[in-house]
Each structure stands twice: as structure tokens, then as C-alpha cells.
Amino acid sequence: MKRAVVITALTKNERGFPVTSTRPYGALLVANTPLLLHQLRAMGGASSVVLIATAENLSALGKLANDRLAEPVTLIDVAELDDVANALATASYLLPGDLLPLDALTPEGRLLLIEAKHESEEGGAAKALLATLGLDDTPRLVVDALRLNYPWELLSANERVLEATVRENVLARDAVIEPGVTMKGAVHIGSGTVVKTGSYLEGPISLGAGCEIGPFCHLRPHTSIADGCRLGKTEVVDCVLFPNSTSKHVAYLGHSVVGEGVNIGAFTVTSDYRHDGGVHRTFVGERKVDTGRKKVGAFLGDNVRTGVGTLFYPGRKLWPRMTTLPGEIVTHDKRGE
Known about the structure:
alpha/beta; UDP N-Acetylglucosamine Acyltransferase, domain 1; 2 domains; 8-stranded parallel sheet
């Protein structure tokens, strides 16, 4: 039976910066599909949806929900409510049946209140919230939810979803594949995308709509390229590119996340492998975090510009609208205001 679902988007995930500094968690793209939609599909759909968010998150997710969901969607600005528990309690009057706070679903399917500021040390607030919803703290629905905290976890999720969903070639009717293109493995290509002569595509790969690929572009496995991206003689492997980003010249993007509207200058390289083959560690705030990955590239926020010949050390991050000079070696994260 489909459930009524409550989705909360109440804070920014600062551990996911710079990728989440300009978009809510549910709008992250995994295999070119917003995470919000993946979560709902993992539940088997919903009878109806309530989205409770800050004004900023409501703007982004509300449009996404209305454009992409077949289910009825109710939008609530959390500023109009006293607190999270009150918000979810209000939603419970709007929806029939069981309620599931989707934002609080861990990969194990255990219902928890993620927002720490609303929890007492004993977890009383979480228990009160679940009681308000008519739930206890035992699993009600076990799904393989995609819960992401750090930006490199988006790469792992993208790899997993591409392997599970991109198993055969699916080309939009108006996609154009020029002569001399090689496709090895499964590739999904969206409407109006053009793949030019000499390009080599190794699946699983997902290309969005209205992209321009090549000539002589090399796309390697586990790469998702969103709508409106333009790539020239660039090698891309195990990357997530958000919409309208460009790398028209010779460059290497490996194991990286590239935000929306980014321009990659010629001969930009994202270093991604340690000489000793060890696991990468990178700073999150003032703390070094073990990524659990042997290959980690760069994480670029929206509207970043890299100068010609930029070289990134592994795991480095550029906040939105940051730039690099020609020939710059990025040894540390570059944060915005």
C-alpha cells in the first residue's frame, strides 16, 4: 500500500559543501535524477506528499516536486510553524494513513529524527515526534535509501544507481550520434543531445538533454552529465556534472563533482590518485575526514571558473563563484564569503 509521505528540508547540509551550499539535499542529482525522486521510488511511490522546508529550500524543491511528481504535493514553509514536531503534526492532519518522515530515513530503514537541534540528550524530542505521527522508533518500511553527507558520497551513489539502472542503450528519438562515435557498454542519451565524431563512450553513462559531446570526447564509466552541458576533447571518468557546465578543450575530470554553470579552462586536471595507493583524506571544515575512496578528484560549486592549466590536488573544493588563475595549483580548499 502506498503511503502518505512527509519530506523535511529544514537546514543546509554543511558537510556536503560546496555541492549542497546552493541546493537542498533532495535536489542533488544521482544518475541525472534528483535524490528526492530516488527516495520516493525506493518506497514504492506515495499516495500524496507534504514538503516542509525553509523558504530557500521550498523554492527549489517545491518546483521540482510539482514538475516531476505525479502525486499531489502540499508545500509548507516551516517559518509559519513553531517547530519541526509542530510542522509534522500539522502535516498529519492533511494526509490520510501512515506518515513517514522521509528525511529521517537511514539506509537501514530505521526512523530517526536527524535534526539534532530538535533532540534532547535522551532523544525525547525524537520519540515525541514519532509519537505525534503515530509511529514508534522501530522500522516501518525498509528501503535502500540514498542518504548522503559528504560530497564524495554522491559519486558512490551515482556509481551504484548507474550500475542498477543503465543496463542497455536508451537514446532519445531526436538525439544525434554522428559517424565515428564508439559506444561500449550501456548509455542513456537525452533529447536533443549531440555526440560528435571521434567520441568514445564507455558505459554505464547517463547524458541529459540538450548536451553537446565532442568531437573526440572520452566519457568513461560511472559518469552522469546533466542537461545542457558541453564537452569537447575532455576525458571524464566517474563524475557528476550538474546542468549547463562546460569543458570545451583538452582537460581531465576524474572522480569529481562539478556544479551548475561551471566553466573548465583548457588543460585543467583533477588529480585523483595517491602515489602509495592509499585512501584519501580531505578537510571538512577544520577536520580531516577519511573518504574511504582511493580515487577522489575535485568538488566544484556552481559557477566556478578554472583558468587554463589549473591543477587540483585530490579532494580539493572550490566554493560557488570561485575562480583560479592560469597555471594555478590548488593545494587547499577555496571558500567563498
